């Protein structure tokens, strides 16, 4: 067991800001799987997800001084870094071109694998049980969360994709986050 095991988050953050290697190792050991799950939901292949997760931890290491505990928890900050890094990677020109050049069988198999509840990708995304919570949302709320958070769509793009007014997307998104907040409270 790590000597940092029972440290308060504030102490861990102080050690990270001092570039303590042991604190960073603890952070990686305890959060890499959860962050990897987020990345896998956004990035299509595990090979690419592994590259992205490395970038995520480099960013965390380099930018830990920017973390502000007044704005939220360390875990939430890291999830946002993981999500944004994965979205940036997916939208990069090389990845977009690579996806265009995929044989149809690769794309179909990937979609089928994502739809199977026992898939490796689904399991890693469910590491913290978030998939179960997301599945409890009303379908119209769940689709908004998935499109915005995991697929990186803006509210305007969601409105266009779903062919609904932007105001409706904004109202449903707010309702989705309120419902999600309540489900997370009940989950604890």
UniProtKB/TrEMBL annotation:
Coiled coil: none
Domain of life: Bacteria
InterPro entries for this protein: RNA_pol_sigma-70-like, RNA_pol_sigma-70_dom, RNA_pol_sigma70_r2, RNA_pol_sigma70_r4, RNA_pol_sigma_r2, RNA_pol_sigma_r3/r4-like, WH-like_DNA-bd_sf
Domain RNA polymerase sigma-70 region residue range list: 27-93, 134-182
Keywords carried by this UniProt record: DNA-binding, Sigma factor, Transcription, Transcription regulation
Biological processes per GO annotation: DNA-templated transcription initiation
Molecular-function annotations in GO: DNA binding; sigma factor activity
Pfam families attached to this UniProt entry: Sigma70_r2, Sigma70_r4
CDD domains noted in UniProt: Sigma70_r4
Protein family per UniProt: Belongs to the sigma-70 factor family. ECF subfamily.
Record protein name field: RNA polymerase subunit sigma-70
Source organism of the structure: Sphingobacterium athyrii
The organism's taxonomic lineage, starting at the top: Bacteria, Pseudomonadati, Bacteroidota, Sphingobacteriia, Sphingobacteriales
